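Retro notes (design track)

What went well: tokenization of the new backbones is finally stable.
What didn't: we kept losing track of which sequence belonged to which structure.
Fix going forward: every design gets posted as structure first, then sequence, in one message. First example under the new rule, 249 residues:
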């Protein structure tokens, strides 16, 4: 059973960012971005929250805010590898059975969306759960930078198995299309298996890590949410986040 005592939310964070160097510590109205994300994770109230940092500066910032953080190997290749490394170091006794990977650049994410992601693991056949919101703008459907989750979520259906994840929609694909949001909930065994798998051909071709799971027969549940949170990748995104969070106060 999924409960607070056996669930951990891990937020991977590193300072290296091509378009926004030092992104985790970027100031949002006086609060570092990583702290805003940590607060959202705390508000989700689904389990312990840990920031897995690549640098001491990030970990110290979270600790100063009253949170839990640890420093991991800076050269780890992905967020998935970072959360797996942090989990192995922090919980060698394997107290946590469920792991949520929350990206450190989503300062506006709705805590309910994090809850819904974890709920996708309620079905015992699911290895990994993630979230997606319906795309209603034709320009977004055509945008290859927006990843589409291909899953039968039509009508009142709230969760469905992922059939594919694509950047470009083929002519034979029918709407509605779903904007994939990069938040994942793993069964611990699935995470440990996933990070040991080699990069798959479709993962490399599409630059989509989740294809590795599908290509190795892992089952991914896609849970429907209402809105897409702002992902902060550029200085312009940062200004939007500042305005959005200022307006909420």
């Amino acid at each position: 059973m999924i409960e607070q005592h056996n669930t951990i939310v891990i937020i991977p964070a590193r300072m290296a960012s091509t378009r926004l160097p030092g992104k985790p510590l970027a100031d949002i109205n006086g609060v570092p971005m990583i702290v805003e994300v940590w607060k959202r994770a705390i508000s989700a109230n689904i389990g312990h929250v840990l920031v897995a940092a690549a640098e001491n500066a990030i970990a110290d910032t979270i600790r100063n805010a009253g949170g839990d953080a640890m420093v991991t190997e800076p050269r780890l290749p992905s967020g998935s590898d970072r959360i797996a490394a942090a989990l192995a170091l922090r919980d060698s006794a394997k107290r946590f059975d469920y792991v949520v990977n929350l990206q450190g650049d989503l300062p506006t994410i709705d805590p309910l969306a994090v809850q819904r992601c974890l709920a996708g693991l309620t079905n015992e056949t699911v290895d990994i759960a993630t979230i997606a919101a319906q795309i209603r703008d034709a320009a977004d459907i055509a945008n290859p930078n927006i990843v589409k989750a291909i899953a039968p979520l039509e009508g009142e259906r709230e969760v469905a198995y992922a059939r594919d994840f694509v950047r470009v929609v083929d002519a034979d694909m029918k709407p509605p299309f779903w904007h994939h949001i990069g938040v994942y909930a793993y069964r611990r065994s699935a995470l440990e298996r996933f990070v040991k798998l080699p990069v798959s051909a479709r993962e490399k071709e599409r630059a989509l890590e989740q294809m590795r799971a599908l290509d190795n027969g892992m089952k991914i549940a896609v849970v429907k949410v209402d809105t897409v949170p702002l992902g902060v990748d550029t200085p312009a995104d940062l200004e939007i986040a500042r305005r959005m969070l200022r307006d909420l106060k």
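Added context from the reviewer: The mean pLDDT is 96.
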